[in-house]
Structure formats: C-alpha cells, structure tokens
Amino acid sequence: MFDDFFTRALIAGIGIAIIAGPLGCLVIWRRLSYFGDTLSHSALLGVTLAYSFSFNITFSVFIISAVVALLLINLQKRTKLAGDSLLGLLAHSTLAIGLVLIGFLTSIRFDLMGLLFGDILAVNVEDITIVYLGGAAILLILYFIWKSLFSATVNYDLSAAEGMRPEVSNFIFTLLLAGVIALSIKMIGALLITGLLLIPAAIARNISSSPRQMVIIATLAGVVSVIAGLFVSLEINTSSGPSIIVVALLLFIISLIPLEIKGQLQK
Amino acid sequence: MAENNNLLVKLDNCGVYKSSKWIVRGISLEIHKGKIVTLIGPNGSGKTTSAKMILKILKSDEGQIKNFASKMAYVPQKINIDWTMPLRVVDFMKLTSHINNLEIVDALKLTGVDNLLYNDIHNLSGGEFQRVLIARAIAKKPDLLVLDEPVQGVDFNGEIALYNLIKKICSTLNCGILLISHDLHFVMSATDHVICLNGHICCSGTPRSIVKNSAYIELFGEHNATTLSLYQHDHDHSHETDGRVTNNV
Lengths: 267, 249
Hints:
The complex is a heterodimer. By secondary structure, chain A is mostly helical. Chain A has helices at 5-29, 33-52, 57-78, 83-104, 112-117, 125-154, 156-161, 166-188, 193-207, 211-236, 240-266. Chain A has a domain at 5-190: Orthogonal Bundle (ABC transporter involved in vitamin B12 uptake, BtuC). In chain A, 83% of the residues lie in helices and 0% in strands. The longest helix of chain A is centred in the middle third of the chain and has 30 residues, at 125-154. Chain B is an alpha/beta fold. Chain B has a domain at 1-35 and 45-70 and 181-236: Rossmann fold. Chain B has helices spanning 2-5, 47-54, 89-93, 101-110, 126-139, 156-172, 184-190, 207-210, 214-226, and strands at residues 7-18, 21-32, 36-40, 62-67, 72-75, 144-148, 176-180, 193-197, 201-205, 237-239, 245-247. Chain B is globular. The interface between A and B is medium-sized, with 25 and 25 residues.
C-alpha cells in the first residue's frame, strides 16, 4: 500500500498531525507561537547546511533549531530586549543567513518553494519511517515530562516548589519543538509548520473544557485537516501543504459556532 | 535529639542578591514539624523572597540552607491562569500530584468549595480561588506547607475558618507551616514563632515576646502593637460559603 504516493502522503501527514496535537496545545498555552515561527524560519538554514555538507536534512534542521532555541533562552537572560524582539531578530537573521548560503550553492538546483511550503506528495518510505520513529520518541518523552511541563505552564513557582523540576522539562520541551519542526519541514514546509501546530490546538480550545480534552480534540482536528486537505488537493489540484492549512482554518471557523451559540444563550 | 528529628528546614544566614542589591539578607530560621512559623513585615520586606528560598525556587546567594522536607506544598500569593488554558478545579487539584477524586472532594470540603469541583477555574471569584489553592496544597499531604497571604479576598468569617483550618492541618498532618500573613490577630493567637522581617530579621520569637519588642513596635506602630487582643469575635453559629448556617459545636 506504500506504493501509492497519495497513501504515503496520508500516512506521513497523519503521523505529523498526531505529534503536533499535544505540542500545539502547549505552544498555545505558553504563548509560544512566535517561538515556533522562529524555529521554523531557522530550519531553512538547517536545510541549506544539510545540502552544503550533504547531511541528513531532518538531523541538520533539528540541530539548527535546537541551537537557535537555546541561543534564544540564553539571550533572554543576558539582554534587556523583550522576548518578541529577540524572536524577530533570530528568525530573520537565520532566515537571511540561510538564503545567503543558498546563493553559494549554485551547483545544486534548489526548490525554494518546496522548502517554504513543503511537498508532502514527494514523501518516500524512509521519510515515513523517520516521522513515525521520531514521532514515537517525541510523544513518549512528552508523556513522561507532561505533568512537570503542564504544572509549570500553569505556574512556574508552584511547580518548582513542589518538586516538579520545571527547568528540566522546559529545556526538553524546547528540544521536542525543534524535533517536530525537523520531522515535518520536508512535508509541510518552513512557513506552514506553525500553522499545523497552532490551528488544530486553537480549534480545540474553542470547544473543550479540560486540558486532556483539548489535547485529544487538537490531535483529531489535525488528523482531519490532513486527510481532508490532501483529498481536496488531489481533487482540485492545489498544493497539498496550503490545502491542509486552509481546511484547518475552515474547521476553526466552524468551531467558533458553538461559542457563538453559547454566548447568545447566556444573554 | 528528638528536636532534631522534627527539623524540616534550617536557614543559616541566607540572602538573595538581585539587580545589584540584597532583597533579603541574614535570614536564619528553623521550621519544625507540627509548628507554625509566621513571617510578618511591610511590603517589599522580602517575605515572599524568603519563602521562595525555603521552597528552593530561589537559590540563596550566601549562607546555608538545609531542607529535610520530603514533600512541600505551596500556596503562592499571586497566580494568574492564562485564558488559553481550559482548566477545571478538578484538573487544577491534580496539578502536581496523582490523587483520586475522592481525596480531591475531601480536601475541597475542608475549605468549603466541594461544590465547585467541575467549575471552570477562570470563573471563580477571588475568595473561591483562594480556597481552591489552599485545598490543593492540603490534598498533597505535605510535610512542609508554605502559605503566602492565603486568605486574601476571603470574607471575614471565612478568614477565621480558614485560619482555624490551617491550625488544625498543622496538627493532623503533623506538618511544618510557614505562613506569610498581615493578620496580626491570627499571628498572635496561633503561631508558635513569629519572624518580623524588613530586608533582614528585625526581631523574632514567640508572639508574646515579639509585641514587646521595640523593633516590632517601630515597624507596626504603637497602635497595632498594644492592641494585641484586636478583635475577639464569638458567634454561636457560622456560615457555609453559600450562606447556610451551621451551629458551632
């Protein structure tokens, strides 16, 4: 069944949506959407470096994203600049460095569009294996640090006082975010990864009343967006990554309806 | 030696240095099982900073901390829960521990808010939220409980009930309690040891000895210091949080 490019795209996309669900919720709760953006912009640098030194792309993107993330945390401690300024600084400078480097790689034909928006239809069996093995590792680690991460998200001091060691789980979480970006850059692209992290979680926030519910709904919404988005792109011949995000957006709009009704009823 | 077995935390000349000044300095204190230690002092005197040092949230920049507590619970002074997170009281109760719903309800009953179990935490009033915070800390069954202004926003009768609860918890769990409080009346009536803070320890001792101390009088004024029996208010009944009357036994 892996013969068909469309089936491979579905399997890979569903895998990424499942990883993105819980991570996306944490990104929303911790107000890290710009952080995700910065990491994915820097991922472009990772890709160019991978091409320059004929490295594995996923590995190279993971390393660069992780380095940028740790750099950011370090800069936040040293400078008086606000978090969003530092994020912008890092996002755009790593993006620029990546694009400058691309200029040097004249020998390689570069698909810039593919990098920015991904090409899920070009996924091969090896990519799928990486997504599922990497994804399983990410989710397993997330499971073990969940309580610590979650309590630190609610209140850092409380978490620290009650022995949850939030500084450790925060550090690991940063690496996991870099990991999910590395896994999905080839398929979703640098510009749209944050969309797949954020929008399903945003849908879930509209219609859930407990954290666990939100994680489950976010995962389901991501999976539905991937499946529907891919079928739409096949049917009307649009690019697959953006189609997935557009479907997610439609789901988000639909998820606003129950909120509206509730608001009307309470008047 | 029995005294030593009960020792939970010992600070020896500790302090926190931040932005090129000492927030607090020269803090030495001990907290023992089954005893209540209260920190009092004006705003910015370093009460919360000292508590955070004891809780290992902040590192002491000098001196020595020995912490023998195996399980600490914390009621922070200020806590803002982001709207982006859907959180019910029951989820919040399980934040840092694995406890079942029965234990949760029991703890919420103690602070009179068991009816709020499935309520969205964002919709609680200030006083209700404070009761949930205290219940959460109690439900952990800690051996060291740190409460930072635990009754803020709670109505007067509720305040008395909660302070009595804290006193009771101290003996039933045999835990040590560090309390930060502005309520001099409670401090004087139920605390074993009072530490009067203003960047350093101004004075400390039993409540009785402290009110006669000149440093205390200077800090809190003649009026507060002399009116030790501030307000002894005896009802023959009390109220549940929803207004129901219960008779005192």
